[in-house]
Amino acid sequence: MKDTEIQAAIKKFNQLLMRYPDSKESSFYFTNFLKQFLRVKSTVSETCLVSFVTIIKHEKPEVFYEIRKRGEYDHVMNFIIHLTTDYEKAKSDLNKLANGSKEIVIVQ
Question: Which domain of life is it from (predicted)?
């Protein structure tokens, strides 16, 4: 897995945030993105996934609600939707990764 794959995913996520409004109809695109991102293998993919969910939760609450409802019958989405961190840390981590930084502190 190359860093460019992570950077491309972050770029696509930012495009989703800008392109789609906070509405029930937009939840499909975010759900699809999250499920596709699960296939990315990297030492920082977990950090990215947690950051994506946290940012959706804070910036797109209606989308987050729809994804959470989907989690009632989709076990993968139910697991993903419970992954959150501090909002500012999530934004900072994604910005660092988008710029190619390896200075992310991963707490295990």
Answer: Bacteria
pTM over 0.70: yes
Evaluate whether residue 20 is within a structural domain. yes
Residue 101 within any structural domain of the chain: no
97 part of a folded domain: no
Q: Is 85 helix (H, G, I), strand (E, B) or coil?
A: coil
Angle of helix 45-59 relative to helix 61-70, nearest 10 degrees?
120
Q: How many CB atoms lie within 10 A of CB 105?
A: 7
Distance CA 3, CA 104 (A): 13
CB distance 26 to 13 below 8 Å:
no
Which one, of 106, 85, 78, 101, lies nearest residue 10 by Cα?
101
In a domain, 36, yes or no: yes
Instruction: Please state the domain count of the chain.
Output: 1
